[in-house]
Amino acid sequence: MRPFRRRLPATALRSISRNSSDADMLPESVALVRRFLFFLAVFLSCLLLYKDSDALRVLHHFSSYPSSSFTAYNSPPISEERGIEEVLKDAAMEDGTVILTTLNEAWAAPNSIIDLFLESFKIGVGTRRLLNHLVIVALDNKAFKRCLEVHTHCFALVTEGVDFRKEAYFMTPHYLKMMWARIDFLRSVLEMGYNFVFTDADIMWFRDPFPRFYSDADLQIACDHFVGSSDDLQNRPNGGFNYVKSNNRSIEFYKYWHSSRETYPGYHDQDVLNMIKFDPSTVNIGVKIKFLDTAYFGGFCEPSRDLNQVCTMHANCCYGLDSKLHDLRIMVQDWKQFLSLPPHLKKTLILPWGVPQNCSLDSLRRYDVPESDAQLGVQE
């Protein structure tokens, strides 16, 4: 019996006869392999172009306002640089919550703020595991490189035309740009679908705060002064610590908050929040705001009194990096001393904090020091 051969169309035969001297057709399997390899090469080329453009693609997730344009740094090795979506996905909890902090060169130096911040997670009650969900957003290249040395989840972010490397004096133009860039970045995180706990790096995490959060709030924020009720709009919020759930209400509120900087020029985000929390526009957005009790979320402005209850302590109401570091180190030592006590003494003794010492409300009266003279300053 003659072997079966597939009959080719006449046009194919004519093509072969023109391009081949021996008129023998290549096996069909070889042609298929060649076509496969061709499409594979095209696919890999497109993939490489996609990867190279990933850092630029991050830009489209950020500010709709032309004054705050974000992009990723190009200077670190490409193997170390990841897009914000990848970093957030890797760090997120099961419910899509991430913990975020920002870092600049001034706070990234060895034995400075960032080291105390990370140490607090390691010595806190139920906080070490939360480091797996912490993303450090570096505002300059040196801060990014230091982050890669000490932590897993790092993202390099720059605001075009703004140098965030040096310490920002309270209420200077440099400080205001940093605060408003932060609000706009957090808005972009919400738009990507992530809940977040934002924390300044000068906040020590001594106890897992999640059990103290309210389940029915869109935005809950720490206070410089707590008046006694979590719903009272007379509370004095501090933007350095807040827990925000991603939904239409929170996204619209962050857009409104950021745009209100133009309505109230020269004010920082906390002052503007204190103004717009009473606005009809905020009511119309429908965002539910809760204020966190300083008994659990304290600071130098209003310290938590009971070390058996404290979750976080903020080095707020403090002017100057040296003063802040001095008092933060004392605070960490106070916590370690508390942890060393026998269980029965922890419950019965009321141990006071040894701070504030160098930090005080009076120190903030010097916030008008010219920025050109600033060598060390404050991120309140």
Kindly describe this structure.
- The protein has one domain: Spore Coat Polysaccharide Biosynthesis Protein SpsA, Chain A, CATH 3.90.550.
- It has helices at 10-19, 28-52, 54-57, 84-91, 105-108, 113-123, 141-150, 173-191, 248-259, 269-276, 280-285, 321-340, 343-348, and strands at residues 70-71, 97-103, 134-138, 154-156, 158-159, 195-199, 203-205, 219-225, 236-244, 289-291, 297-299, 312-314.
- The strands form 3 sheets. The protein has a 7-stranded mixed β-sheet with strand order 4-3-2-6-9-8-10. A 3-stranded mixed β-sheet has the order 7-12-11.
- The chain is an alpha/beta fold and 380 residues long.
- The chain is globular, with a radius of gyration of 28 Å.
- The protein is built from 13 helices and 12 strands.
- It starts with 9 loop residues before the first helix and ends in a 32-residue tail after the last helix.
- Helix 6 runs parallel beside helix 12 and helix 8 packs antiparallel against helix 9.
- Helix 7 (141-150) links the parallel strand 3 (134-138) and strand 4.
- Residues 1-26, 49-80, 163-171 and 366-379 have low confidence and may be disordered.
List the helices and strands and how they pair.
Layout: H1 10-19, H2 28-52, H3 54-57, E1 70-71, H4 84-91, E2 97-103, H5 105-108, H6 113-123, E3 134-138, H7 141-150, E4 154-156, E5 158-159, H8 173-191, E6 195-199, E7 203-205, E8 219-225, E9 236-244, H9 248-259, H10 269-276, H11 280-285, E10 289-291, E11 297-299, E12 312-314, H12 321-340, H13 343-348
Parallel strand pairs: 2-3, 2-6, 3-4, 8-10, 11-12
Antiparallel strand pairs: 1-5, 6-9, 7-12, 8-9
